[in-house]
Every structure is written in C-alpha cells, then in structure tokens.
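Can't paste images in this forum, so I'm doing it all in text. The chain is below; anyone willing to post the predicted structure tokens underneath?
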Amino acid sequence: MTTPPNRPATADGLFLWVMHRFAEVFADHAILEGGMALRLIDSPRSTTDIDYVFAPYASKKDVRAQIETVLSEIEDADVLIELHSKMLRAEIHIDSVSIQLEVHVAMECRGIPMSTGGFARQLGQPARIVRIMSPDWALAHKLAAWNERRLLRDLYDCYFFTARLHEKPDGGVLDRRLAHVESRIPALANRRNMTRAELATELRAEAADLSQERLAAELGGILPSEEIAGLAPRMQAAIANIVEWLEEQSP
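Text version of the structure:
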C-alpha cells in the first residue's frame, strides 16, 4: 500500500501520493490527464493541479464517495469536495500546502500505462505504474481546449505532443469536441460547433501572432527560461504541421 506523504507535506509529494493511491484503488478506471500526465512524459511545464478522467462512469456522483474515502486517508488534511456542472473538484490542504484535484467522468477514455519514474525518484519514493490518457486522445482534447480558451499553455502542450512525441490527434475525439464548442470567449460565445477546416484557420492566425514576448509573458511562470528561448518558431512549425493534418483530414 502507498505510504503516507512525507511531512511537512509538499505539493509534489501530495501529487505523487494521489497518483499512486488512485492507481491502487481505482486501477484502470482512473486515467491521469493534463499537466501532471505531461510531467510523467518529461514535459518541462509545471502545474498546480492534478486532473483525472474516471471511466466508464456516467455521473460524477458515482465516484464521489470513493474519492472522498481515499482522500480522507491523508492524516491531518482538510479536504473539500464539490460537484460542479462538468467535474468533481477536491481541494486538499495540509501543513502549508494546498493542491487541487479535478475529476471528469466519461463512458470511454483510452489510457496507456506509464511509470511515475523520475518524478517519484526526485522525491525519494519508488516508482509505480499508473495510467495516463493516450497521447493522441490528449492532443485532440488539448486542441479543443485551446480553441475554447485560447490559452498559450494549451497551445504549448499541443506543440509538445506534436514536436516532441510526434503525435497526431485522434480524429474521432477531436470531432466530438468540435461538435459541441463551449467557450466564454466573446468571439466564440455564439458558436456551437466548428469544422476541422475552421479550426485550422484559427490555428494559422494564432501562429502568425506568436511572439517571444507573448510566450514569455504567459508561460514565464510555468516554463523554465531555457525552454522559452527560441520557442516561438518551434511552436509555429508544430502548429503548421497540425494545420496541414487538419486540412488534409477535412472533408
């Protein structure tokens, strides 16, 4: 059984405990996604939360009790769990540290096994095998997330999947997301769906507007300076590859 987090607690120590304990309790049903999954595949981007998809589940209510039971194992921690329209969110507070956990549910989510490897060893803990979202699915979701939020961190993640892992997005996942666009951005507030060709047009415009200054301003807090140096042309090249794929795959 996973040992309790070291005290005083650290954010990374809590993240590792959640990953290992969820893998023990929920096995293949708990699939890690987002920034923490990227850290396990050597992305340099930092993150302040840990995200999961639980599958196959139809409702967040189906997993709340189990998650609450697992998180209650962290001795002395204050745990607040709330159900939102799209997710279950848990805030974990212990010592001087707070982390956030977000859980979505789905009837299907493709996962692959991944070692916690170097991340665990940095904390003096043994590695375990967890499940992360398959990179082609993750890239499709990241493209849809960028489209709805227009955050450069999402676009950076798309670059990482494309340029570093040589991934292509899963077309079915991307089409399902584009068929139900949900955005608070004024320009997209009235859009309910998009085509791959329309997404390609948006990405091409964003690539043309990329600059080192924008990247430094938006990503400076989550990427090391050596990663940001010269990042604009690298991201533009990766976006061009994604645009080419979208246009080739469009009807």
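The chain has two domains: 11-133, 136-249. The first strand starts at residue 30 and ends at 33.
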